[in-house]
Amino acid sequence: MAEIPGDEPRRGKVTMRDVAQRAGVGLATVSRVINGKPGVAADLIERVNEAAHALGYRHDVTASSLRRADRRTATIALVLEDVANPFSSALHRAVEDAARAENILVLTGSSDEHPEREHELIDNFTLRRVDGLIVVPTGGTDGQLATVRRQGTPIVCVDRLVELDRVDTVTVDNREGTRAAVRRLLDLGHRRIAYLGDMRSIWTARERYEGYLEAHSGVGRPVDERLVRLDIRSADAAEHAIGEILTTVDDPPTAVFAAQNLLTIGTFRALERLGLHGRVALIGFDDFPLADMLRPGVSVVSQDPTEIGLMAARLLLGRINGGDHRHARHAVVPTGYIARGSGEIPPP
Amino acid sequence: MAEIPGDEPRRGKVTMRDVAQRAGVGLATVSRVINGKPGVAADLIERVNEAAHALGYRHDVTASSLRRADRRTATIALVLEDVANPFSSALHRAVEDAARAENILVLTGSSDEHPEREHELIDNFTLRRVDGLIVVPTGGTDGQLATVRRQGTPIVCVDRLVELDRVDTVTVDNREGTRAAVRRLLDLGHRRIAYLGDMRSIWTARERYEGYLEAHSGVGRPVDERLVRLDIRSADAAEHAIGEILTTVDDPPTAVFAAQNLLTIGTFRALERLGLHGRVALIGFDDFPLADMLRPGVSVVSQDPTEIGLMAARLLLGRINGGDHRHARHAVVPTGYIARGSGEIPPP
DNA sequence: ACGTTTCCCGGAAACGTTTCCAGGAATGTA
DNA sequence: TACATTCCTGGAAACGTTTCCGGGAAACGT
Predict the structure, then answer these.
(1) What separation, in Å, do the N-terminal and C-terminal C-alpha atoms of chain B show?
(2) DSSP letter string, A11-66
(3) How many Å apart are CA A262 and CA B114, to the nearest integer?
(4) Residue B63: which residues within 8 A CB-CB, separation 6 or more?
(5) Is it the case that residue A345 has pLDDT exceeding 90?
(6) Which residues in chain B have their CB less than 8 angstroms from residue A75's CB?
(7) Contact in structure between B166 and B328 (CB atoms under 8 Å)
(8) How confident is the model over B142-171, as pLDDT tens digits?
(9) What is the pLDDT of residues A23-78, one digit of tens each?
(10) Once rounded to an integer, what is the mean pLDDT over residues B29-56?
(11) Model's pTM, two decimal places?
(12) Chain B contact for A1, CB < 8 A?
């Protein structure tokens, strides 16, 4: 085989042993110096650092975590619905920042709301011996999560409530946020309020729908099922559904509550297409970029993904750093309401 | 110290040796079976799998990559400007999908356009012995990238051109995309076209500005420097800058080219605030969500982050899988133009 | 001056795996 | 039947690091 000229002089070839030899000290001493452990004479520290630098030594983190007592890899994993959606990516960023502060790296994956995919991701991550897991659970992997947790890996579930032993959660009060917003519409005089909801397999979606129902029962007002569509999962589907409701129901709604990002956008499109924006009120759950630039501006129940991510990271890092709380902790971060116009349209 | 009752029965305690013992075979055989290597009797394979399952054996990927000949960790790293911005996260998603197909996991980090931060990330990633690196380079880390590449780690740079030995790149033709769009405005009769640009330290920003200049010289039309603002880095700054140009220059522009996402949004805000949307033409570089929902719809030069990410992943995985191309490869994915109205406004 | 403690240091074992190598059985050939 | 070849298998070495442990020197107390 021919010698390849400019190719890989020697990949990571220089090891601690080389450093030890050059510095004229033992292997153990090099390890102590590299890890900043106390009890090494100053001149030796100097010699080792010098040798390491001269040789271009690079510490191998994976090899070190193998023998290390705590077996830490300084890596956590983040399982999101889709790294590309705004909520997920804002959360991701918050987690990254929190992790960075402790020099911890973040692995990510998108489940696309499929339990099998989530399962596979979690499996791959734990195989890599991550120190902890932050998951937006699909709801179909509770057994796996419980097992992983029992084997020692800290887990924080985000956005969806799960009840598992020593698994922390961070959620927002979906029910109350929705209830308050729908109540606003009712107080404004709206009597027929349509509701578009996400898949009922998702805890969040169920909670929000409950909030819608509670708002109605709170004022003793029945809901008309013909104004409710659940299990909608895309902007297009929402656009279609709300269009249908507005044009076929004989006594059409004067307001719409869209229980998710994409559904809000789909609804907005439909209203505009029908020339009803400005006439039919709209409130969405979860803010989205440029919502303020639309006409009318879209009012939303807002949740703060940065705050959620930060909280999740805090809980996780707390456990990783030995805070072995026996019980699961459930943090709830508040929702807000952002009035931009569309939610303030009164009934005709 | 008290025995903690329900806590971590034994973390990952079961090893290949245990499996070997239970199956009554040698350690080497277990390894062969787990890795699906040929040349093991069928009944032994069966016995090993059975034992592994009964014991709940979990393969330790980090330990295996230590001794493994190719030293692969089945992990790649992705250094983005900010995982939370739409362009980056779409790219991220595309890379994730491509990597998933080969069971490779993705580590991510945000440089925030700071060379030091980028350097630090790359350092951490290579310490983890990732198999490859996809980077949106700030431009201040060429030396480091060259070193890392020389030591054997494949690298693909994305969105910005760099000229380094055996470092592949994926870019879009910023210059041509901008030139064509500005030319459109000129052909429409616009004679005074303002330009808002990002920081000139970024290759992309320089290229786009060149395109703007080329379009003008192409029709023998001088550019008025008072209509040009460079080194703008936020929507607010853009809003301010364009507002200033429109109100203080005596012969104000009839069209604006905003060379980046946020700048486009800032410009739109300013135009709306001044009541000039619908009267002053606007074209932005890079599409953004809901651009079609604004009034007027915002015309943009579009680039396809999914395509870019896919291409980058393909190049990287190609090299990881042994395709040792001696030369650097530079892929260029085409830009498009999406007409939505704002770019089609004629001069008064 | 002598025992005891403390402090540093280096050799060797260990982490969980893959790979090398050699040996034994089974198969093929003369 | 004898011998060469192929195929399977398991013991042991190796990967790069951390940790255990024992030993020598220095510091301390009397």
Answers:
(1) 84
(2) TT---HHHHHHHHTS-HHHHHHHHTT-S---HHHHHHHHHHHHHHT----HHHHHH
(3) 33
(4) A66
(5) yes
(6) 107, 128
(7) yes
(8) 999 999 999 999 999 999 999 999 999 999
(9) 999 999 999 999 999 989 999 999 999 999 999 999 999 999 999 988 899 999 99
(10) 94
(11) 0.92
(12) no
State how far the Cα of B77 lies from the Cα of A106, in Å rounded to an integer: 10
CB-side exposure of B43: number of CA atoms within 13 Å?
Answer: 1
Neighbours of A192 (CB within 10 A): 18
User: Residue B24: left if φ>0, alpha if ψ -120 to 50, beta else—which one?
Assistant: left
pLDDT digits (tens, 9 = 90+) for A271-285: 999 999 999 999 999
Other CB atoms within a 10 A radius of the CB of residue A225 amount to: 8
The region that residue A312 occupies, defined by phi over 0 for left and psi between -120 and 50 for alpha, beta otherwise, is: alpha
Backbone angles phi, psi at B225, to 5 degrees: -60, -20
pLDDT class for B119, splitting at 50, 70, 90?
A: very high
Q: Cα–Cα distance between B302 and B147 in angstroms, integer? A: 34
Give Cα A91 to chain centroid, integer Å: 5
Q: How much is the pLDDT for B308? A: 98
For residue B4, what pLDDT band results from cuts at 50, 70 and 90?
very low
Q: Are A291 and A75 in contact (CB under 8 A)?
A: no
- Can you spell out the DSSP letters for B183-225? HHHHHTT---EEEE---TTSHHHHHHHHHHHHHHHHTT----G
CA distance A215 to chain B (A): 31
Query: Chain A contact for B14, CB < 8 A?
Result: no
Q: Which of B71, B144, B151 to mutate to test the interface with A (most CBs of A within 10 A)?
A: B151
The yes-or-no verdict on residue B8 having pLDDT over 80 is: no
Would an 8 Å CB–CB cutoff place B90 in contact with chain A? Answer: yes
| Antiparallel, parallel or unpaired: β B105-110 and A105-110 | antiparallel
Whole-number average pLDDT of chain A? 94
Whether A9 has a pLDDT exceeding 50, the answer reads no
Rounded Cα–Cα distance for residues A253 and A226 (Å)? 10
CB count in 10 Å sphere of residue A70: 9
- Token pair belonging to B326: 């001696």
CA atoms within 13 A on the CB side of A49: 10
Distances (CA, A) of B221 to B188, B215, B217, B256, B335: 14, 9, 6, 16, 25
* pLDDT value, residue A11: 47
Give the CB-side neighbour count of residue A37, counting CA atoms within 13 A.
Answer: 8
Share of chain A above pLDDT 90, in %: 92
Confidence of residue B100 (pLDDT cuts 50, 70, 90): very high
Residue A289 one-letter amino acid: P
List of E strands, B55-128: 75-80, 105-110
Radius of gyration of chain A (CA): 27
Residue B322 touches chain A, beta carbons under 8 Å:
no
The whole-number pLDDT of residue A153 equals 94
Nearest to B338, CA basis, from B171, B170, B181: B181
Cα–Cα dist A207/A288, whole Å: 20
Note the CA–C1' distance, B67 to C19, in angstroms: 8
* H or E stretch covering B133: strand B132-135
Picking from B116, B127, B150 by the largest number of A CB atoms within 10 A of its own CB, the best residue to mutate is: B127
| Owner of token pair 């980077």 | B135
Which residues on neighbouring strands pair with residue B195, listed in sequence order?
Answer: B228, B257
| Residue A213, beta-bridge partner list | none
* pLDDT range class, residue A7, cuts 50, 70, 90: very low
Neighbours of A331 (CB within 10 A): 17
CB contact under 8 Å between B294 and A293, yes or no, is yes
What are B191's two structure tokens? 């004679």
